[in-house]
Amino acid sequence: MFDVLMYLFETYIHTETDTQVDQERLTDDLTDAGFDQEDISNALQWLEKLADYQEGLVEPIQMSGDPLSMRIYTAEECQKLDADCRGFLLFLEQVQVLNLDTREMVIERVTALDSLEFALDDLKWVILMVLFNIPGCEDAYQQMEELLFDANDSILH
């Protein structure tokens, strides 16, 4: 399913092509690209749930706004998000790329993935997908995009 999401994001969303694609046509395109029907269906459902945030149909879990509070991850969340992933989420909060709401949206969307293995690079793409779909997060999306692509392009000395 994650491969389908990545393909969709890179092909339709990130390239700024026409994002108003008929679901039937999209399913046909994905099938032609060699994706499994179940993965396609799961990915489209995942995107529909993400769209619910965009349309305000679902509110993220409300957390304490106290800056001294600490997010405690559930066992399920820890299975998906290893220490590197959780540390990266904390870093993004500290540099104000993510706020409490967008962090919770990201965590919810990660736990909704059916992938058994989930790496930090995967998390970065999920963050981009969430920020892209949430109104008012354009600056955060741009910052995250710069973090993602600058880190991949830079050479450490």
From TrEMBL:
The protein's gene is named: smg
What organism does this protein naturally occur in?
Tatumella ptyseos ATCC 33301
Q: What is the lineage of its organism?
A: Bacteria, Pseudomonadati, Pseudomonadota, Gammaproteobacteria, Enterobacterales
NCBIfam families noted in UniProt: PRK03430.1
Query: Per its record, how is this protein called by name?
Result: Protein Smg
Query: What family does the database annotate?
Result: Belongs to the Smg family.
Regions crossing the membrane: none
Query: Short name of one Pfam family for this protein?
Result: DUF494
Which HAMAP family has this protein been placed in? Smg (MF_00598)
